[in-house]
Amino acid sequence: MNDKEPTLRDNVPTTSRPLLGMTILVVEDSRYASEAMRLMCVRSGARIRRADCLGSARRHLQVYRPTVMIVDLGLPDGSGLDLIAEMGRANPRVDVLLATSGDAALREAALDAGAVGFLEKPVQKLAAFQNAILTQVPEDRRPAGPRPVDPDDVEPDAVAYRDDMAAMADRLEQGADPPTVHYVTQFLRGVARAARDTVLLDAVDALRADQRSGRNTGGGVARVTGLLRDRAARRVSL
């Protein structure tokens, strides 16, 4: 581990930058969701590192220990629950280990695996993001006094959304077997909700329902793939 990485005590947090001194490792495969996290880290004074899969996260952790980890539960090379369980057993532990998912039903599984908190996607409110971290650190590590509350949602660049759409369309076109459909739909559900893309969200939910009930998913896959290609090509403004 790199002992020179910032710790919670390296800098004194302020009310406007309450996460100052923290390094946050975000393990997230969506560029759109990752960009939202980046913006919230920057506005909060935290340094961010990013990994898009379990393998990348483990490589990061061989080099340094973050003060905070936020782990998406649905990753392209496995479940984030496995990484959370590993970090829960690690010594020394990460100060704050959080799980995130668009499926609120996974909250208990995440906490059982070792997470100390759960962020339900979409994570768009700066105050909620900050509170999820600050409530898990001792009071003397929190900024003194009331913090200003930003009521607006964090809005990532639409380019990141288009990149996500193109990546998931490629994935479906390479083969829509059940594990792929499961992964793509859980990925898209969180991203579409964050972008308020109700047309895509409805199509994804219908495809998820078909898969869960054992119905043929061919038509649903074709519809979702078409919507993804449309969004990637149209350079839609969200």
Automatic annotation (TrEMBL):
Q: Which keywords does UniProt give here?
A: Phosphoprotein
Q: Any idea what this protein is called?
A: Response regulator
List 4-aspartylphosphate occurrences by residue.
Answer: 72
Describe the location of the Response regulatory domain by residue ranges. 23-136
CDD domains assigned to the protein according to its UniProt record, in alphabetical order: REC
**This protein's record includes keyword Phosphoprotein:** yes
Alphabetized PROSITE patterns for the sequence: RESPONSE_REGULATORY
The Gene Ontology biological process annotation of the record reads: phosphorelay signal transduction system
InterPro entries per the UniProt record, alphabetical: Bact_response_regulator, CheY-like_superfamily, Sig_transdc_resp-reg_receiver
Q: Which domain of life is it from?
A: Bacteria
Hydrolase among the record's keywords? no
Per the UniProt record, the source organism is Pseudooceanicola batsensis (strain ATCC BAA-863 / DSM 15984 / KCTC 12145 / HTCC2597)
